[in-house]
Amino acid sequence: MSFIIKTAKFLDESVLSKKDKNTTFARRFIKWAERCDNGIKECCLNATNILPDYCILNYTKETLEYFKPTKNRIFNKIEESAIFEKDTYKFMGFIIQGPSNFPYSYTYHDLKEYFTQLDYTQSHIPHPPSVPMLLGLPQTTNLFDLLSSLLYGTTVSVGISLGISAIVIVASTSRPLLSLAAILSITFSISVITASLLIFGWTINVIEATILVITIGLCFDYSLHLAVAYKLSSDIVVTQKIR
């Protein structure tokens, strides 16, 4: 429990000290224990005693909104609080919220800078027995994971889609030059759509990834039908084959 006191002193000397010193979880818990009005003798903090873990559990039950009776269990706000093991209620750590200089964004590049700064800050924190974890809010981390998977997964999915399209076209037409023309047509169409998105300043996001997927499907469908129709036509005139 002593690391809570050390954390409170560290926060008082850091950028978080711009907030009211009684607003951080560690500071509020210490003030609660120092008042000695909680009815539990063991939870009265002084210069000699060490508080047991159930003191912080009792404090959390008294103060955290989640433990208070309510008809509504939908919570959108994450409060600074203690972290307990689910079944045993063993004290594991606590949450501390702090300010950020990075504005909220829906683009991968902006969120990448934010999480890079978190990793950099965590690497410069002196490691106590329990190494702290610096994370964003669940909504932010989930969005970053989604954008990251779209950024790196879209290229892979486009390559796999082109490979499958090429195999199907080659198997359907059995003509190397005709298959090559169809594959080049699909590749060119995808390149034009991607370049258009970049020119208009769009980044790979949910909407852009959906557009690319639809583009591949439409290009493959049209090119395959045209190539097969061209192969099955026995006319010599090219315009009649296309018709």
UniProtKB/TrEMBL annotation:
From which domain of life does this come? Answer: Eukaryota
Q: Which Gene3D superfamilies match?
A: Multidrug efflux transporter AcrB transmembrane domain
List, in alphabetical order, the Gene Ontology terms for molecular function in this entry: transmembrane transporter activity
Query: InterPro entries in the record, alphabetically?
Result: Dispatched_Hh_regulator
> Where in the cell does this protein reside?
Membrane
Q: What is its main location?
A: membrane
Q: How is this protein positioned relative to the membrane?
A: Multi-pass membrane protein
Q: Keywords, A to Z?
A: Glycoprotein, Membrane, Transmembrane, Transmembrane helix
- TM region positions: 150-170, 177-200, 206-224
One annotated GO biological process: smoothened signaling pathway
Q: Which GO terms describe its cellular component?
A: membrane
SUPFAM superfamilies assigned: Multidrug efflux transporter AcrB transmembrane domain (SSF82866)
Under which name does UniProt file this protein? Uncharacterized protein
Q: Which organism is it from?
A: Panagrolaimus superbus
